[in-house]
Design goal:
By secondary structure, this protein is an alpha/beta fold. The protein is built from 15 helices and 17 strands.
C-alpha cells in the first residue's frame, strides 16, 4: 500500500544489451548474443534491487524508467522478470509513470501487450528518421515500415503514452527531409517527441566518418531546430525542454526529476544516481558489475563514483538544469533553495541575452528562448564554471 507522506523517488534500470551498435552511440552497450550472459545480468540486476529494498523503504517510486542499450533486446521473459522485481522491491504509487525503451525492430504486439499488463504504461521508441537512407547512415536495424508496424502494435496493445526519438544534423539529412519525418510522425500521433541534435562523439563510427559523409552545416542545423520547434507547436506539441515536446499532460515525469534536481536511483552497469544527498555511479563494465553483485564480499568494486554533493555544486546544477526547461528559473524559488539572490549573482550576465532575444525575464523568471536553447551550452558556460559541477556527465550537449 502506498504512503503519500514518503519521499518520492525516480527509479532507473540500465540494460546494456543491443542487437547492434548504432554508428553514433557512445552509451555503454554490449551485443545481445548470449542468453546465458543476459540471464546472468538480469539476475545480478534483481539482486542489486533487493540490496536497495531496505535503503529505499522511506520512499515511494512515482517514476520507473528501464533504458539502455535496448531493454527489448532481452528475451521477453527476462524483461518481465525485471519488471516483477521492481514491484517486489520498491513501493510504487498507483499512477506511477513506467517507461520501457524499445527499438522498433525488437518488439511485437504480444510483448507490448504483456508489458502493459505488467504495469508498463509508457513506451519510448527510437525512430530517429523516417527516411531509410538516413537510417542506414546511422546503422539503425529498423526501417520506417518497421517503426510504423511497431507503433501500431503498441496502440493495439493499448499503450496510451508513446514517446518517439528523432534526430537532426545526421548524414544526408536536409531541412526538407527532417520536415518530411516530422510531418509523417505527427500523423501517427505520439504523445511525446524528443528531438536530439546529433553529437559526434570520439570513438564512434560516425566520428571516424565525419570527413567523408555529407553532414548538414551548422546554419542548416539551426534552421532545422527552429523549423521543428515551430512545426511541433502548431501541431499541439509544446516545447517544455531543449529537446522535448509533449501534448498537454504528457511531459516525461521521469526526466523532469533530473531537470528539477529531485532524487533518483539508478541501478545496473553505467547507471547514475542522486540519492540521499550523494551522487554515485556504477562501473561501465557489465562483467565487473556482475562479479561485484555475485560476490559482494570480494574485492571487486562496482561503484566508480560516490560523492557528497556540495552546496556550490547543487546551485550550479540547479541553474544548468532549470535553463534546459522552457519554464526557466524562478528567482524566488532559487532564493528559497539557496538563501541567496540569483539576480545579485547572475543578473548582470543575463541582461545581454535578454536584450538580444536569447532569454526572457518576466515576473521574476528567466527562461531561454528557442534561440537561447540552441546555444545553451555557450550561455551556461558563460554563467557557470563547469569544473564546479562535479562531472556528473548526464546532460552533455543537447541530448
Amino acid at each position: 500500500m502506498q504512503s503519500y507522506d514518503k519521499s518520492r523517488l525516480g527509479l532507473y534500470l540500465h540494460i546494456p544489451f543491443c542487437r547492434a551498435k548504432c554508428a553514433y552511440c557512445d552509451f555503454y552497450s554490449l551485443p545481445a548474443q548470449s542468453e546465458e550472459l543476459m540471464q546472468r545480468y538480469t539476475d545480478a540486476l534483481i539482486t542489486h534491487m533487493q540490496s536497495y529494498k531496505k535503503g529505499a523503504k522511506d520512499y515511494v517510486a512515482d517514476t520507473v524508467f528501464i533504458g539502455g542499450g535496448t531493454p527489448t533486446s532481452l528475451p521477453p521473459q527476462m524483461l518481465y522478470q525485471i519488471i516483477r522485481a521492481v514491484k517486489r522491491n520498491f513501493s510504487l504509487v498507483r499512477d506511477a509513470e513506467f517507461t520501457v525503451e524499445a527499438n522498433p525492430a525488437t518488439v511485437d504486439h504480444a510483448m507490448l501487450t504483456h508489458l502493459r499488463r505488467l504495469g508498463v504504461n509508457r513506451i519510448s521508441m527510437g525512430l530517429q528518421s523516417a527516411n531509410n537512407n538516413e537510417l542506414m547512415a546511422l546503422s539503425r536495424i529498423h526501417r520506417r515500415q518497421d517503426f510504423e508496424a511497431s507503433f501500431r502494435a503498441a496502440r493495439r496493445a493499448r499503450i496510451g503514452n508513446i514517446n518517439v526519438d528523432v534526430m537532426f544534423g545526421i548524414p544526408y539529412q536536409t531541412r526538407e527531409s527532417l520536415m518530411k519525418t516530422l510531418r509523417w510522425l505527427v500523423k501517427l500521433g505520439p504523445e511525446h517527441i524528443s528531438l536530439y541534435d546529433l553529437i559526434l562523439e570520439p570513438g564512434t563510427r560516425l566520428y571516424a566518418q565525419r570527413q567523408t559523409l555529407p553532414f548538414p552545416s551548422e546554419d542548416e542545423e539551426a534552421d532545422m531546430y527552429f523549423m521543428a520547434v515551430e512545426f511541433l507547436a502548431k501541431h499541439g506539441y509544446a516545447q517544455y525542454e531543449i529537446s522535448n515536446f509533449a501534448r498537454p499532460g504528457y511531459m516525461c515525469r521521469h526526466n523532469l526529476k533530473y531537470w528539477n534536481c529531485e532524487e533518483y536511483l539508478g541501478l545496473g552497469a553505467a547507471a547514475h544516481s542522486f540519492f540521499r544527498g550523494n551522487r554515485f555511479a556504477f562501473v561501465r563494465d557489465a562483467e565487473r558489475y556482475m562479479k561485484g553483485i555475485e560476490a559482494p564480499t570480494s574485492a571487486v568494486r562496482i561503484t566508480q563514483q560516490n560523492d557528497a554533493v556540495s552546496p556550490k555544486e547543487r546551485l550550479g546544477e540547479y541553474i544548468m538544469l532549470r535553463f534546459r526547461l522552457a519554464a526557466g528559473l524562478d528567482c524566488r524559488d532559487f532564493a528559497r533553495r539557496f538563501g541567496t539572490s540569483f539576480e545579485n549573482l547572475y543578473g548582470r550576465k543575463m541582461q545581454p541575452y535578454v536584450q538580444h532575444g536569447y532569454a526572457t525575464f518576466k515576473d521574476g523568471v528567466y527562461a531561454l528562448t528557442p534561440r537561447g536553447m540552441f546555444v545553451s551550452n555557450y550561455i551556461l558556460s558563460d554563467l557557470l564554471d563547469f569544473a564546479d559541477l562535479g562531472g556528473s556527465g548526464m546532460f552533455d550537449g543537447n541530448r
